[in-house]
Amino acid sequence: MKAFPTFEQLFATLPAVRSHAPGRVNLMGDHTDYNGGFVLPAAIPQTTRVELVPSTGKTVRVWSSACADSRPAEYDLGEEVRDGEWTDYVKGMTVVLSDHGLRSGFRARIVSDVPFGSGLSSSAALEIAVGRALRQVFGLRLTDVELAKAGRRAENEFVGAPVGIMDQMACSFATPAAPIFLDTRSLEFQHVPLPAGAALIVIDSGITHRHAGGEYAERRQECLEAARLAQVTELRDAGEEDLARASLPEPLARRARHVLTENRRVLETVGALRRGDLEKAGSLFTASHASMRDDFEVSVPAVDALVRILAAGRGVYGARLTGGGFGGSVVALASADGARAAADGVVREYGVQTGNRGAVIVPLR
Known about the structure:
The chain has 365 residues and is of the alpha+beta class. The chain has helices spanning 7-11, 87-97, 122-138, 144-159, 166-173, 214-229, 240-246, 252-275, 278-294, 301-311, 339-354, and strands at residues 17-28, 38-54, 59-64, 73-76, 106-112, 180-183, 189-191, 198-207, 316-322, 328-335, 359-362. The strands form 2 sheets. Strands 1, 2, 3, 4, 5, 6 and 7 form a 7-stranded mixed β-sheet that branches. The two termini are 15 Å apart.
């Protein structure tokens, strides 16, 4: 493992606070959060860790393991400019947190093993970890839910990624063993522990994606238009009769159908996990991937191949694309016995069939 410079080596002082936040994998409910719907994300073991010390003046100096060979980035509070780099997420947080009393600069060191561009919320983990450190060192009066909202604002308003709030809430409240069943409208949530004997498999397809890209924004705009034509506030409010009455044109009809059926699948998956019915939950994973592939059109051929190979693995109940799509990772519900061996075998076969290099994210070695 590469040795990174310490905080003291970077800044000639010691950190005042340390914080961290995990990445997340969404088990069910993709593209429902910005439609006011339901989601079921879990945390992953990989985390983003922040060390931070306040400084006088307005200058921010921040170093990240994402650019380990470079000098710390530097900017002044109140003069944040988006540049398309990882620093945008830090800048977005300082812009938003200025509304909550952030007035002084700081020095920060960030180390993360959450894979970037894998659909596992590396950006939200960074936002929450930075936000937690700033809240602690400056005494900012923010609850965990308010901090999650701040992370979403940073990503929406500064970074320019039209994401919902699932990622920030998951990075704040979920654990690897206990996903959260979240109503993204009310932000009420419940932990839903995985049944005994169940395990998650998460594999990075090796195909990166960006939420700030045009295709993600296009899907969100299509959902807004479908809701307008169906005369509902959000697609979460629509029923099949509303969609039938609206006679939505394609592809809006398929986009809306995905949101409606995905919301149902979240509710059914929560029920299946609480009953310990892994076969039922696995079948819902399979149905969800088909909907994301065919109705929402956010999958790509290599990811479809990875899902197919994974779903056929020994002890695997079902598999699906997870996250925003257009690349990223897949998640499977599996038997805990042999999950790691099954995942390794899937990655090898995926490489043979597609030529892509996948990587097992969960379970850890």
